Structure formats: C-alpha cells, structure tokens
C-alpha cells in the first residue's frame, strides 16, 4: 500500500512551517511523526496534495520546567515523553501514558503534538492531557493562542485547530499530588488501541474511546467531590458518554468497562497517594 | 526529491518520488532486501530498521523524512564476519523459521536491548508487541532476546 | 554415535540472519530484469453481476503497460472441468471430496459475476509498484449488486445463489447416516449443542507472490509455494505442457496450508508474462492477503454425546457444515477429515458423522495448519468436557476412562480411522504430573471460595490427528555422492521454515557418515527436482525424510560395491563406519577408504540413488495439552498463564526443530481460541482486512510453553516418525478453550464460542448470572 502522490516540503522553523501552510492552503497537511497520517494515506483514506514536514524543527522538541507547569514541545516523541525525568517526578501520569502508546517503534517516531492534533478519541494521550487540565499553545497565521484541553477536542477527528494552525506546545499544570494518578487501558492485545481507557489525576477522570472525543467523566467527578465512595462514583462512569459499537466491542460492553476501569484507576490513584 | 541517507555506514544519494517510503528506498534504491514489508499498517514490524540507532517501522516513514540520517538494516549488523550478539542468539536458540519476520525482529531486539540491557521476559514480550511472527510462537525469539542480553553482560 | 536425536542448530540460519532470505520480491535474477509490476483490480462488492469495465482512464496513466481482464484471455486453452460429476439443478450435491469444476468452476479473472470482496477482476501491469496502485484505482467496474450470502444459514436458505445454474448453495454432501438416535438409548447422561469453529486467516508473514518470465517458449515462474511440482501442473492451465514450465520456490515466508499449489492470481501472472512477453512480478499487499488468500476452518458443528454416570462414553454424533467461501476448493476434503477424526482418542462404541458444504460470498476456504483435523479435535474435546460436567466428573478422569488403550493398537475407530500407535493415557499423566494438576485444582478451589475477581481455569485436550494422509503419493529423494567427498541431496519436500535442510542432512549424515557441512540440500526447483510432492499435511519428515533414508541406503549399497572392488574383497565383507564416514573390510579397521575415494571409482565419479518412498497408510500423532488461564471476571479478559504439552510424533530426529514446530503450532491454536477471527458485515464487506483489525496474536499475549517429551514409534516408516507440524495447533485450541470455560463454569457458564474475546467472556458470565438470579 502506497500513499497517493503529494508534494513534500520541509520546514526548519515554526515561522517557515506557517509560511508554507499559508502558501499551500487547505491542500496542505503538517507531517509530524507521521504515524497517524501516513497509515491513513496508505489506505487512501486521506490524500493531501502537500505534506509539510515538521520533523526538522528542533525548537519544538523539549520537556521544560515552567514553574507551575511543565511545557512539552509538540514534536517531542512519545519515547522522550515517557523517559523525561521531569515528567516522571512531576507529572508521572503523562510519562506513563506515553509509554502505553503503540509499540517501541511507534514511540520512537510518533509525537505528542501529532497525537493531540489528530484528535482521535481512541488515543491515550488526549485523555491523559484532559485529566491533567493541560492547555495547548497554537500558532496561527494571526498570532498565538492557548486553548484549554476541555475546549480543544470538538468532534470526531475535529479539534480547535483551524487550517494552517500549528500546535506548538502542550502546557501541563503540575498536579498538587503527582502520585495520585491512575491509568487503565483495556485492549484485546497489547498492541491494540484502547477499547476503553481511563486516566485519573487526583479527582479528575478522563475517558478514552467513550464518545467522539476524549471525555471527562463529569458525573464521577461530581460524585467524588460530594464525598461518594470510589465504587459509588465509578458506577456513574458511563453517564454522559456516547460510546460506539464496532468489531472490538459493543456500546454496552464499553459502558460496563468504563465503570470497571474507572473504579480500578481511582483505586490505583488512591493506593499511590 | 533528492534524498541522502547513510545506510549501514555507506552514503547513498538518490532522486526519488516525494512519496517514496523508507522501506522502498532501502529495498529498491539501496538494493538491501533483508528488510521486508509485512503489513503496511504499522502493525507487524517486519520492516523494522534502526534510524540513528533506534527502531522504527520503515513502511510508516517517508524516505524524505530520513534524509540526512543514518539507517542500519539487518545487513549492516554483523561486523568483521561475526554475527551480532542478537543474530547469534537467534541462531543458537532457533529463533527463526521461515525468516520473513526475522530482520524486523532482530532489529527491534537490538534497539530494545540498547534501551534496556537486562530485560525481564515480560519486558521482552511487551517490547515485541509490534512485531508479528507466525512460525515460532515467539517462544524462541524471547529466549534469543534474553540470551543476547545475557551475552552482552 | 548417530547424530539423530541430538540438538543440531539450523544450517539455514546464517544466511537468513545476515543477508535475509531471498523471497519472490527480493529476486534479482537476470530473467526478471525490467519486470513489470502486477496489481490486481479486485471486487469491491461481495456478490454482483459485472455490467461493464472501463480501462481507459487507467490506461492513460504513466507507466501503464496493460490492463487485462477475462475478455483478454482468448489465448487460453479450453479447460476441461477439473472435477468429476457436477451436480445439476435437479441432482443431489456431489458426494465429496472432489474439486468441483463445471458449474462450480472458479475462473482465473471474474467473468460476468463476482462472488466475494477481493475477487480479482483485472490485472494492471505497470513499470513500478507505485504506478500500479494509482492506475488500479482508476479501473472502473460497474456492478449490478445481488444479495450477498455471508453466513451458513444464509446459504442454506438458498434465497440467493452463487452459482444459479446449480440450483443450490450446497456443493458437497458426505459422511454417514446420522439419523439413528437409538445409539443414545440407555445413556444416563446426554449432552447436545452447537460448536462454532470460526473462520481464521492463515497469515503467512510473506503473502502470495509470483514472478514469471516467458522466453523462447519456456515459462519460468518463481512462486511462493509449498510445492513447486504441483504448482507446475497448475500452471499448465495457461496452455503450456509441463516440460515447458520451470517453477522455482525461492525462500518462502511461511505457508500454513494456504500456499499448497498456487492460486488464480498466480496463474494470471504467469499468463500475463506469456501474453505480453514481459517478465511480470506480483507481490500482494496484506490488505489483499487478508481479503483474498484462502482462509481456514469455518465450520459449524452440531453434536450429541452420551454415556454412563461413571464416565463411559457410549455414543457420539457430529454433524458438520463447512463454509466453503465463494468457491469450493478443498472444502469437500476438509470436513471429510473432520468426520474421520471425529471420536478423537476415545474408544466410543457408536460414532455418527456427516457433513455438507455450502458456498458463501466470502473468501474461499482451504487448508490451514491442521486442515479439518483441528475442527474435529476442538469439538470432541469440548464435548467431553460438556459430558464430564453433566456427569459431575473431573475432565481428566473422563478422558482416562475412555482412552483407547495401548494394547488395542492398531485400532480402527468407528469413524473408520486406522490408528497406528498410541499411548494416550501416558501422555495425559505426564502433563498432569508436570503441571501439578492437583495443586492447580486446589488453587482454583481457593479462588472460587474467596470469590476472587481473577479466576483460574484448567483446560485439557487429548488429541490424535492424521498426518501424511496421502502417504501413497509418497515423496522423492535423490542423493549424489561426488568424488570430492561431498554430497548433494535433492528432495521433493519443500521447506518454508521447517528446517528440512538441517533435518534431511542429519539423516544422510547418520546413514553415511558424510558430515552435514559437506551435504548440499536442494528443493523447490522443477528443473532440478522434476518429481516431488511437497510440504503439507505434516508429511515431510515421515515421507521426505524416509525417502532420504531410503536413498542413503541405496547409495551405500552402490558404494559398497565400489569399495569391494577397490579393496578386492567380497561385497559382504565391506562395512561402513558411519561415525567417520569411512569404508573398511570387516575385521580390518586399519585399511580404509573415504567416500571421495569410493566415488572416484564409480561411473562418472558419482554415486547416485534416486528414489520415491511411499507409505501404505497414514500416521496418527497424539498428545495432551493442559492450558492454565486466568480470567478477569469483571472484564472478561483472559490471560494465558501456562501451556504444558506432551506431543508424541515418534522418535525425535532433532529436538530443536521439533520444539520449534510445537511452539508455533501452540501459538496459532491459542490464537484461534482467544483472539483471531475473520469477520464480514451483512453485505459481505470484510471487516478484518488489515493487521490493525485482524487480531494476530503477539508475544505479549503468550507465555513461554512447557514441553514434555513422549516418543512412541510408528511401524509405518523406517524412521518410526509421525508428523509434528500441525499437532501443536490441534492440541492447543481446545485446551485453551476448555480452560477459559473451566475458569467461569462455577458461575454457571456452559460454553463460549471462539474466539473468546473479553466481551464474549463477560457476556457469558453476565448471562449466566442473570439466569441464576431468576
């Protein structure tokens, strides 16, 4: 399987990338690690006319201490997120989630920004960033804006990114109790995308693959806030979700898994903290 | 477009289609055919090579993306006529049958052991989640990885 | 001391490990210089009439050499229907097994109708692969869509017919009358039910691939096949006699039954090379492989089993419906084997088995590792567990009560299978002992009483299977000993991962003393090995290896005559020291001749033996698998903790190779039990046509396996060996299946169909709990 023909251009800076995007318009797509886009192109589900390779923009690969938050460059690879000592100490949920993505080869190429920008509800990292109340720094043609995760994911593969916008940085607030995290990814095989996943930080709970976007389990969070037990709160995990049915799982089974996994993730977080 | 790669220590420059995948550059331009294409969906790992020393799936990467970088394939592992420890372990432990997944498996394990020189069996198994073998049931591949780790101590 | 039975690592490996194999896509033969690339245009609907094909846009693309359809195949010979009797609309279906032609024939390219998504409709020849994919997308095929038949039930209704001229979707019926219910009279315990043996993908890591060059009236085809010689016969379909065709099997990246012979696409590639005069190469994508390579299993069973409260089984009935997919290939043969092996390892006084085969708008079914026997073992082993549960007995005890005993061999079962040798109970006891079965049961009991989330399950499968069922066809071997002391060994077997070069050289060394490193093994080239049968049905060691053994003996006889002449001694006084590979006169070890010296004296400096070994009956390897699983009762997720096996295929020639075959087989069998299944939607669209969707098992889902030794020889061949290639698969599927159900049986679960995905397990638990709450 071969991608349809396109023109490859390479950006070496954020400014150059934005310039190329402006030049080529809606026919262009950014290429980060390529591990979401290239498979879709090979199956001929996507056929952009121009690919703007961001892989040579060193200024976008970093994990930096910014005081109250950790700044992660959008082109930081999953492998580097998983092994960043700053994240291991200050935001272990994020490091752990990055290690759960794909397989080692995929983690050597795939980037956190690519995963976020792709906006796949079945991805692990968007849900973890949602639970962490992360913000996304976006450079557009008209300047820079910062969008909180809660407002970023809008629909099926749809995000706050407008054509030409470039996600440059992920800002992850340092949790008050970093160790109070839990992560559950339920798959048939290790390599599979999550049938359902749960990311917990403190009393924030986010769900993977329970709707068209990553979701906060608001009913669970509200119950916890009003003093409910973990078991009682977790029983509400499917409320407000809109899981689909596919060859991997029915909607009813996903809802059941959400309840079980939320309970386990909360217990995991409680046990750690 | 012009792509310049160092493949197994040798510089190769070629003018290729923008969309050419790295695996086709290796097989058709560099004429190194050990690297196989097994699935085209980043699922099976048969096309695994080392890019600047780290395992990647060369069917999910454009040759252009690797421009200026260094690629190691199975053909580049042995040195001075001696098999690499992972190759030798595959031989000793019967870690291959039909041989089709083998180049990708070997390269994945070389990378895995570089990052984790003393893995447990469970770590080896998880580390190979993206490589499919249909012949060996993985039993002897896992043993080979552990034996290579032991030999590397 | 003989090298046989020792752990010899493979001579095949160094090349594969340092340079990689040379598979079809890797060939750089001069005949293939400038080869065009073939890309198939495939049906995008499951069942339709073709109303038009427009090639014009594709032909206008850069690099396009030709776009060819069935209408272009005017230079093919008129084909005789390959099958025997073809049933007409008013006739009953054929009594299998026959490869059906005539009204059931499978065309090379679809003519006026497509019958499954992925069926080849046109072939596009281009200068490069990339151009091929682009151009193939632009071939426009118009369809008049017909209702798709996607299930066995749908086929049986006959509402939509794949082959309207036949008047039915039932293409074959066979077996015996199963209507006599009196065999269950007097049974205290009778259990009845349906068991699905789901469709799975064979999934060799190298898909199908063929390159062909036609020059000076001779066709050379390089094909990824399990038997070059059979492939050569099949390629005669393009209108060439066998002696104008050379087939080469280069390195083959796995077969598992799906590469027996060659498929229609490969014939089309050979035809295209002849038709256009250009060398052509085709290497399928995984997407094509998962849509259009033959698949395996796909049987629906209805069973009834009955017996006494003390565990003695008195009667067993097996009714098989085989889904053939869109074309009836081997599908008459597969369920016949399932019938033959129906009662497994048990001495059951009454056995009834029959089968019918239906066509559906899905990929064709053919052999997959085990081919008809795994289905039999899977079902009898589930049935025995059902029976044990209903009788309130431990499954191990029920097996012991019913095993055919060692002193009963040779034993002909009530299904008609002539079992050669067996030590069924010994294999079971070995496994129970090594696993510490009693402790495992105690742990299970403890977890049950504590109501733990993770429950333990133990699953047994005691199996017997039939290998080298076509032993009468035998296998060929030719040995040449050269005057430099080296030997060349030509075999009709065709390794694609099994390690024949190592195994067969070991046999030759053991007999002759010529060291392995001086033996070259050659296979899979019809110019060098014109006569051969190939590798399938676990036949290679017992037939191909026995042929090597026979050739070695003949070579020794010829050498002895030459040595006697050189020694000026009587032939009877000449002896071979097989440890050193030297010839002596009996009682005079000081005087010796090497193989080189003896060969030098022979005509042309060469000693040759060219033989065929045939076996007058098949062999029946057997064993017991015990699988230990943990089931998360909240999610339904299964973890395979341990898998312990005793697989007995007679004396072990090379434990390294034998273990490798078992490991691979166990993994494939466990995969069927746990995760793998080919799925279609109601319109016949494949849902598992990439490896992102088809859940091939990986290292992360499996434990290391625990293998025990058991060696019961067969009298059927001089090596005393049976086949081991498929045994692992046959034993492991029911063992894992039984283990998972055992883990949740205390919750009221009686059965879960394969693959036992987390959702299926969870659903079974939920439903059992709901039922018990009522």
Short structural description:
The complex is a heterotrimer of chains A (273), B (153) and C (774). By secondary structure, chain B is of the alpha+beta class.
Provide an overview of this structure.
- The complex is a heterotrimer of chains A (273), B (153) and C (774).
- By secondary structure, chain A is of the alpha+beta class.
- Helices cover 36% and strands 24% of the residues of chain A.
- In chain A, the strands form four sheets. Chain A has a five-stranded antiparallel beta sheet with strand order 4-5-10-6-7. A four-stranded antiparallel beta sheet of chain A has the order 11-12-13-14. A three-stranded parallel beta sheet of chain A has the order 1-3-2, covered by helices on one side.
- In chain A, α5 runs antiparallel to α8 (124-131).
- The longest helix of chain A is centred in the C-terminal third of the chain and has 22 residues, at 251-272.
- Chain A is globular, with a radius of gyration of 18 Å.
- Chain A starts with 6 loop residues before the first strand and ends with a helix.
- Chain B has five helices and five strands, in the order ββαβββαααα.
- In chain B, a hairpin with a 2-residue loop joins β3 (48-51) and β4 (54-57).
- In chain B, strands 2-1-5-3-4 form a five-stranded mixed beta sheet, with helices on both faces.
- Chain B has 153 residues and is an alpha+beta fold.
- Chain B starts with a strand and ends with a helix.
- The mean pLDDT of chain B is 97.
- Helix content of chain B is 33%, strand content 15%.
- In chain B, α2 crosses α5.
- The longest helix of chain B has 14 residues, at 102-115.
- With 774 residues, chain C is α+β, with helices and mostly antiparallel strands.
- Chain C has 18 helices and 29 strands.
- The N and C termini of chain C lie far apart (70 Å).
- At the A-C interface, α12 of A face α3 and α18 of C.
């Amino acid at each position: 399987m071969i991608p349809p023909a396109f023109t490859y251009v390479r950006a070496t800076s954020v400014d150059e990338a934005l310039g190329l995007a402006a030049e080529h318009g809606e026919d262009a797509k950014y290429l980060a690690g390529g591990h979401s886009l290239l498979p879709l192109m090979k199956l001929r589900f996507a056929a952009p006319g121009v690919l703007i390779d961001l892989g040579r923009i060193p200024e976008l690969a970093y994990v930096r201490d910014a005081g109250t938050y950790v700044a992660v460059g959008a082109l930081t690879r999953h492998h580097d997120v998983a092994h960043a000592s700053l994240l291991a100490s200050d935001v272990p949920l994020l490091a752990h989630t990055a290690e759960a993505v794909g397989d080692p080869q995929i983690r050597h190429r795939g980037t956190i920004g690519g995963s976020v920008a792709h906006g796949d509800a079945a991805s692990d990292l968007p849900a973890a960033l949602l639970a962490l109340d992360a913000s996304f720094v976006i450079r557009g043609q008209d300047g820079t804006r910062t969008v909180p995760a809660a407002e970023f994911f809008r629909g099926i593969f749809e995000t706050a990114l407008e054509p030409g916008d470039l996600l440059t940085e992920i800002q992850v607030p340092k949790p008050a109790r970093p160790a109070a995290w839990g992560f559950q990814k339920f798959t048939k095989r290790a390599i599979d995308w999550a049938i359902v996943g749960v990311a917990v930080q403190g009393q924030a709970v986010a769900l993977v693959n329970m709707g068209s976007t990553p979701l906060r389990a608001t009913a669970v969070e509200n119950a916890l806030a009003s003093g409910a037990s973990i078991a009682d709160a977790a029983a509400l995990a499917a409320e407000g979700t809109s899981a689909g049915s596919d060859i991997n799982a029915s909607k009813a089974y996903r809802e059941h898994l959400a309840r079980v996994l939320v309970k386990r993730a909360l217990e995991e977080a409680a046990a750690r903290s | 477009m012009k792509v310049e790669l160092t493949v197994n220590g040798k510089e190769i420059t070629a003018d290729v289609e923008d969309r050419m995948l790295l695996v086709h550059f290796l097989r058709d331009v560099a004429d190194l055919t050990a690297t196989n294409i097994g699935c085209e969906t980043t699922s099976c790992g048969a096309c695994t090579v080392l890019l600047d020393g780290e395992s990647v799936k060369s069917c999910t990467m454009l040759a252009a993306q690797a421009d200026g970088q260094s690629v190691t394939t199975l053909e580049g592992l042995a040195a001075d006529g001696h098999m690499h420890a992972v190759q030798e372990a595959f031989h000793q432990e019967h870690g291959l049958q039909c041989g089709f997944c083998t180049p990708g498996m070997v390269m994945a394990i070389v990378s895995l052991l570089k990052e984790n020189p003393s893995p447990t069996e469970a770590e080896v198994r998880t580390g190979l989640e993206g490589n499919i073998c249909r012949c060996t049931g993985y039993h002897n591949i896992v043993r080979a990885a552990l034996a290579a780790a032991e030999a590397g101590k | 001391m003989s090298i046989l039975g020792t752990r010899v690592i493979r001579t095949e490996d160094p090349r594969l490990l340092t340079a990689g194999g040379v598979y079809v896509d890797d060939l750089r033969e001069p005949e293939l210089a400038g080869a065009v690339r073939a890309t198939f245009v495939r049906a995008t609907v499951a069942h339709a009439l073709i109303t038009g094909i427009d090639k014009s846009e594709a032909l206008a693309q850069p690099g396009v050499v030709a776009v060819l359809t069935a209408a272009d195949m005017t230079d093919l010979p008129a084909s005789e229907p390959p099958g025997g009797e073809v049933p007409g609309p008013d006739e009953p279906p054929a009594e299998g097994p026959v490869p059906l032609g005539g009204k059931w024939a499978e065309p090379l390219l679809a003519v006026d109708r497509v019958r499954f998504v992925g069926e080849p409709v046109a072939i596009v020849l281009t200068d490069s692969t990339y151009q091929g994919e682009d151009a193939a997308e632009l071939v426009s095929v118009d369809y008049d869509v017909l209702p798709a038949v996607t299930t066995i039930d749908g086929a049986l209704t006959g509402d939509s017919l794949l082959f309207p001229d036949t008047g039915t979707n039932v293409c074959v019926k066979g077996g015996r009358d199963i209507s006599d219910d009196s065999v269950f009279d007097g049974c205290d315990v009778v259990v009845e039910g349906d068991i699905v043996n789901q469709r799975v993908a064979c999934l060799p890591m190298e898909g199908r691939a063929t390159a062909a060059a036609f020059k000076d009236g001779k066709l050379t085809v390089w094909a990824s096949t399990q038997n070059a010689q059979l492939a050569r016969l099949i390629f005669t379909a393009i209108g060439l006699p066998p002696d104008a065709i050379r087939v080469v099997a280069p390195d083959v990246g796995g077969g598992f039954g799906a590469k027996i012979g060659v498929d229609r696409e490969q014939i089309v590639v050979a035809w295209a090379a002849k038709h256009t005069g250009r060398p052509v190469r085709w290497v399928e994508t995984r997407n094509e492989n998962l849509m259009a390579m033959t698949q395996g299993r796909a049987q629906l069973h209805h069973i009834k089993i009955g017996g006494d409260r003390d565990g003695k089984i008195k009667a067993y009935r097996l009714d098989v419906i085989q889904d053939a997919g869109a074309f009836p290939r081997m599908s008459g043969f597969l369920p016949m084997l399932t019938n033959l092996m129906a009662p497994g390892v048990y001495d059951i006084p009454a056995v009834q088995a029959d089968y019918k085969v239906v066509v559906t708008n899905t990929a064709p079914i053919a052999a997959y590792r085990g081919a008809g026997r795994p289905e039999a073992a899977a079902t009898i082993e589930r049935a025995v567990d059902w029976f044990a549960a209903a009788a309130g007995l431990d499954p191990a005890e029920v097996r012991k009560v019913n095993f055919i005993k060692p002193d009963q061999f040779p034993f002909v079962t009530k299904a008609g299978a002539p079992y050669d040798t067996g030590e069924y109970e010994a294999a079971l006891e070995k496994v129970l002992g090594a696993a510490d079965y009693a402790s495992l049961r105690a742990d299970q009991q403890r977890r049950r009483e504590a109501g733990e989330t993770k429950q333990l399950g133990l699953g047994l499968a005691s199996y017997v299977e039939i290998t080298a069922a076509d032993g009468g066809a035998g296998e060929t071997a030719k040995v040449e000993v050269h005057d430099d002391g080296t030997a060349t060994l030509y075999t009709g077997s065709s390794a694609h991962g099994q390690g024949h070069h190592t195994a067969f050289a070991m046999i030759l060394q053991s007999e002759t003393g010529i060291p392995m490193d001086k033996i070259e093994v050659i296979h899979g080239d019809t110019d060098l090995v014109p006569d051969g049968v190939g590798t399938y049905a676990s036949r290679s060691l017992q037939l191909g290896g026995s042929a090597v053994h026979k050739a070695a003996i003949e070579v020794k006889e010829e050498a002895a005559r030459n040595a006697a002449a050189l020694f000026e001694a009587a032939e009877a006084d000449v002896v071979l020291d097989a440890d050193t590979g030297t010839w002596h006169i009996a009682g005079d070890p000081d005087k010796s001749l090497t193989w080189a010296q003896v060969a030098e004296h022979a005509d042309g400096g060469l000693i040759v033996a060219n033989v065929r070994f045939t076996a007058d009956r098949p062999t029946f390897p057997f064993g017991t698998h015990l699988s230990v699983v943990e089931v998360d009762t909240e999610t339904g997720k299964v973890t395979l903790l341990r898998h312990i096996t005793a697989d007995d295929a007679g004396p072990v020639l090379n434990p390294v190779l034998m273990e490798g075959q078992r490991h691979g087989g166990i993994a494939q069998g466990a995969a069927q039990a746990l995760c793998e299944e080919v799925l279609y939607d109601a319109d016949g669209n494949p849902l598992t046509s990439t490896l992102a969707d088809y859940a091939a098992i990986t290292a992360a889902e499996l434990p290391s396996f625990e293998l025990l030794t058991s060696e019961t020889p067969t009298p059927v061949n001089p090596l005393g060996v049976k086949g081991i290639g498929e045994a692992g698969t046959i034993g492991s599927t029911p063992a894992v299946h039984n283990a998972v159900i055992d883990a949740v049986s205390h919750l009221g679960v009686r059965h879960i169909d394969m693959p036992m995905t987390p959702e299926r397990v969870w659903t079974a638990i939920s439903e059992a709990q709901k039922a018990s709450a009522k």
